Amino acid sequence: MNNQDLPERTMRTITSKFETREENSEPRIEGYFADFSGVYEIAPGLTESIDSGAFNDALADDIRALTDHNTAMVLGRNKSHTLELKVDSHGLWGSILINPKDQDAMNLYERVKRGDVNQCSFGFDILNEDTDARDDGSVHWTIRKVKLYEVSVCTFPAYDTTEVTARSKDAETIRYKVFVGWQQTMRSKHQYLKKEEKNA
After folding, report:
1. How far apart are CA 81 and CA 13, in angstroms?
2. Residue environment code for 49-88, b if the CB has 16+ CB neighbours within 10 A, otherwise e
3. pTM for the whole thing?
4. Residues 60-79 pLDDT 10s
5. For 7-32, how does the pLDDT look when each residue is reduced to its tens digit (9 = 90+)?
């Protein structure tokens, strides 16, 4: 199953091995904002993964680095060369150049340095994805292409309630279609067997 037009912006959060370092006395926070090998559990029986090509056309856009998705807490921006993003075989990697004159940013830098904050997230629109309705009733989505708006260093991981609700409704629709398809298959099979019996 393939969906090309999914307009809602979503957030996905992972635990990352963030590192802090100084380059020419400039503090940086670095780590992976998305993991291609990981599976995101939205709700019981509902999971997602990110395809390795999902960000191929996304990194040239105007993207911000935020704290906890707060647009008032901008840590960096790729257009101002204070945020570097790149994709490798593991996932989406980022390096944020922290402004030493921004006390909030420096406070976050110290929290990451101590290991108190080690989770990250990214905000995006899903442009293309595949859906796998499995025999056990679970549903898995593979996100193939995104429009990326921001990456965030986060204190707590969280799925927005509306995202969980939307995915749950999608899963209900998918399961219903699978059930209807099964009914049609069984009906056709039954009719075929009756016809074979009549012709025997």
Report:
1. 24
2. bbbbebbeebeeeebbbbbebeeebbbbbbeeebbbbebe
3. 0.74
4. 999 999 998 889 999 999 99
5. 455 777 766 778 898 878 899 999 99
